[in-house]
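Budget justification aside, the reviewers requested a transparent look at the raw inputs and outputs of the sequence design task funded under Objective 1. We therefore reproduce one unedited record. The lines immediately below are the C-alpha cells for a 558-residue chain.
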C-alpha cells in the first residue's frame, strides 16, 4: 500500500510540476493575464459566461495585450489593430495556421482537411485552387441563380402575409434561402428547402450546428488534457464518439458524396464551385507528401484569382522564401469532399445570420429602414424588378453607399464569426512583435474583435455604442454620399483579415445585398410582441440569435 501511495504521489508531483511549468509561459515572458487553475487553466472562468464578454472584462484588467490558458494551451489576446495587422499580414509566414479545435487531428497529415483548417503549403495549394471560384466574373455569372432563389424567397414571404401583416420568424426563412442559394451556386442542385420546412438537409445542418459548442464535455476534456490529445482522439474513434462521427454530420457528408458522384457521371459541364473542385481532383495522394516536404516558412500569402489591388492588400511584406517548384493546383478526392463541406457550412451559417441581424435592426431602427428604402426604391425606378437575374440589377448593387454602410455597421455590432478569427504561431523559436512582446511557438493569437469594434479611440467620429451607418459614409464634392469604409484596415473583422480572410466574403456580401434590395423594396418590418431587443445570442462556431428573429412583416405599397 505504501509503495502504491508513493507511486501515486510521484506521478501527481510530476504532473503538477509539468503543468506548472507550462502554465508559467506568459509570466516568464512578462505578459499579464488571469491566474490559471492547475487543471483547467482559465477554462473554468468561461462557465456560464459569454466568451467575448469575458475577454472584454479581462482587457479592462490587464490591457490590450494579455494571455490566458485553455487547459495548458496558451492564448494571447490582442485588442490593438496595428498589432493584429502585424500578425495577420506582416508576419504571415510566422502565423500561417489557425488555432486548432479541441479534438482536431493533425492538419498536416489528416486527408479530410478543409482549407479553413489547413496550413502551410497545403493551405496555399487549396486556397490558390479555389480562389478563382470567387472572382468578379464568377460572381456575375452566378447572380441570375442567386436572384432566382431570392425571388422565390420574396414570393414565399408574400404568400405568408397575403391576408395582412403577420409575425414571422424570419431567421428560418433566411436559413432556407441561403441553403437554396448555396446548393444552386456551389453544387448545381435545385432543392425544395424553401418550401419544405422539414427538408432533411436543413434539419441535419441545424441539429449539428445547434449542438456545436466549445464548452461541451468532450471539448473541455480535450482542452484540459491537450498534451494527451492523440490518445483521446484514438479512444473517441474506437467508441465512435468523435465530432466527425456525429450522425447528422455523416448524413450531410453522404449527401455531398452522392452529389459529387452524380456530377462525375453527368455529361453537363457547369461553371460552379463543385466543377472547379472536380477539375482539380487527382487520385494521387503524393501531393500531400509534397506539401509536407516544403519549408514551413514557404508562405508568400500571394493568392491567385484576385485583382492586383486585392493581392497587394493580402501579401506579406516579409522577404519571400519560395521554392522554384510550380505551385500545384490539384486536390485529392477527400480534399474535394472537405472543401465542399466547408463551403456548405460556412455559406449557410454566415449569410443567413448576417441577414437575420440586419432585418432585426430594421425592425428596431425604423429610421434606418426608411433611409435604405429611399435609396433602393430609386434603383427600382429604372429597373424592372420582375426581370429576375437582371445583370443591370447586379451592376446597381455596387452603387448603393447607404446599403453598404448598413451592412458594415450591423456586422460591426454583430461580428458573428469572431470566435474563429485567430492565428497560431508556428515559427520555430517564436517571434517578436513590434511592441517587444515575445510570442513563443505554439501560442494562439486571439484578436479581441468586440473590443476593437467598440473602441472609442478607433471609432471616434460617432460613439461606437450607437448604431450609426453614417460612420462609414462621407459627402463627396457633389454632395452625394460616398462609402469610405472603416477607419483602420483591421478595425472591422467580421470576415477576418489578411491572406487567410474568409474566401467567400465577396459571395456572402453579394447575397446579402441582393436579398436586401428585393426585401426592403417589397416589405416593411417592425417589432412584434415576440421581438427580442436586445437579441439573446447563442455562442457556438458562430454567434447567432438563440431564439430566432420574430418580427412583423407587411407589404409595402408603391
Amino acid at each position: 500500500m505504501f509503495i502504491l501511495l508513493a507511486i501515486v504521489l510521484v506521478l501527481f508531483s510530476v504532473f503538477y510540476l509539468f503543468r506548472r511549468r507550462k502554465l508559467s509561459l506568459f509570466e516568464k515572458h512578462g505578459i499579464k493575464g488571469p491566474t490559471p487553475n492547475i487543471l483547467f487553466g482559465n477554462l473554468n472562468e468561461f462557465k456560464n459566461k459569454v466568451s467575448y464578454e469575458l475577454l472584454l472584462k479581462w482587457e479592462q484588467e490587464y490591457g490590450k495585450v494579455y494571455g490566458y490558458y485553455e487547459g495548458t494551451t496558451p492564448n494571447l489576446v490582442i485588442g490593438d489593430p496595428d498589432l493584429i495587422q502585424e500578425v495577420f499580414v506582416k508576419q504571415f509566414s510566422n502565423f500561417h495556421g489557425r488555432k486548432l479545435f479541441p479534438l482536431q487531428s493533425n492538419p498536416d497529415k489528416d486527408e479530410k482537411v478543409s482549407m479553413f483548417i489547413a496550413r502551410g503549403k497545403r493551405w496555399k495549394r487549396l486556397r490558390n485552387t479555389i480562389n478563382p471560384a470567387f472572382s468578379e466574373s464568377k460572381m456575375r455569372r452566378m447572380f441570375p441563380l442567386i436572384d432566382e432563389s431570392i425571388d422565390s424567397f420574396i414570393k414565399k414571404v408574400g404568400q405568408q402575409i397575403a391576408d395582412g401583416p403577420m409575425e414571422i420568424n424570419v431567421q428560418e426563412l433566411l436559413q432556407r434561402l441561403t441553403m437554396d442559394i448555396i446548393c444552386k451556386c456551389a453544387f448545381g442542385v435545385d432543392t425544395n428547402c424553401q418550401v419544405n420546412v422539414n427538408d432533411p438537409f436543413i434539419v441535419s445542418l441545424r441539429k449539428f450546428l445547434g449542438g456545436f459548442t466549445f464548452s461541451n464535455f468532450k471539448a473541455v476534456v480535450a482542452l484540459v488534457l491537450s498534451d494527451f490529445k492523440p490518445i483521446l482522439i484514438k479512444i473517441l474513434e474506437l467508441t465512435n464518439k468523435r465530432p466527425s462521427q456525429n450522425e447528422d454530420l455523416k448524413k450531410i457528408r453522404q449527401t455531398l458524396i452522392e452529389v459529387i458522384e452524380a456530377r462525375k457521371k453527368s455529361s453537363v459541364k457547369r461553371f460552379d464551385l463543385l466543377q472547379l473542385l472536380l477539375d482539380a481532383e487527382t487520385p494521387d495522394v503524393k501531393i500531400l507528401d509534397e506539401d509536407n516536404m516544403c519549408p514551413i516558412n514557404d508562405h508568400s500569402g500571394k493568392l491567385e484569382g484576385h485583382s492586383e489591388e486585392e493581392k497587394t492588400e493580402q501579401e506579406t511584406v516579409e522577404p519571400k522564401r519560395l521554392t522554384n517548384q510550380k505551385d500545384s493546383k490539384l486536390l485529392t478526392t477527400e480534399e474535394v469532399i472537405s472543401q465542399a463541406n466547408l463551403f456548405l457550412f460556412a455559406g449557410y451559417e454566415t449569410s443567413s445570420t448576417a441577414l437575420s441581424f440586419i432585418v432585426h435592426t430594421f425592425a428596431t431602427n425604423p429610421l434606418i429602414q426608411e433611409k435604405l428604402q429611399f435609396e433602393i426604391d430609386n434603383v427600382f425606378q429604372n429597373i424592372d424588378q420582375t426581370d429576375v437575374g437582371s445583370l443591370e440589377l447586379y451592376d446597381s448593387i455596387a452603387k448603393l453607399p447607404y446599403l453598404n454602410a448598413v451592412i458594415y455597421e450591423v456586422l460591426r455590432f454583430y461580428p458573428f464569426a469572431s470566435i474563429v478569427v485567430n492565428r497560431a504561431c508556428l515559427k520555430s523559436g517564436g517571434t517578436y512583435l513590434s511592441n517587444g512582446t515575445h510570442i513563443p511557438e505554439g501560442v494562439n493569437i486571439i484578436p479581441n474583435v468586440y473590443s476593437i469594434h467598440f473602441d472609442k479611440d478607433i471609432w471616434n467620429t460617432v460613439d461606437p455604442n450607437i448604431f450609426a451607418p453614417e460612420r462609414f459614409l462621407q459627402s463627396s464634392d457633389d454632395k452625394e454620399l460616398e462609402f469610405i469604409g472603416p477607419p483602420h484596415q483591421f478595425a472591422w473583422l467580421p470576415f477576418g483579415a489578411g491572406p487567410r480572410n474568409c474566401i467567400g466574403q465577396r459571395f456572402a456580401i453579394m447575397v446579402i445585398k441582393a436579398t436586401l434590395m428585393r426585401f426592403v423594396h417589397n416589405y416593411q418590418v417592425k417589432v412584434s410582441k415576440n421581438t427580442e431587443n436586445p437579441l439573446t445570442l447563442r455562442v457556438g462556431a458562430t454567434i447567432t440569435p438563440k431564439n430566432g428573429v420574430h418580427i412583423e412583416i407587411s407589404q409595402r405599397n408603391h
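Confidence is low (pLDDT under 50) at residues 293-301, 303-325. The longest strand covers residues 65-70. Computational costs for records of this kind are itemized in the attached budget.
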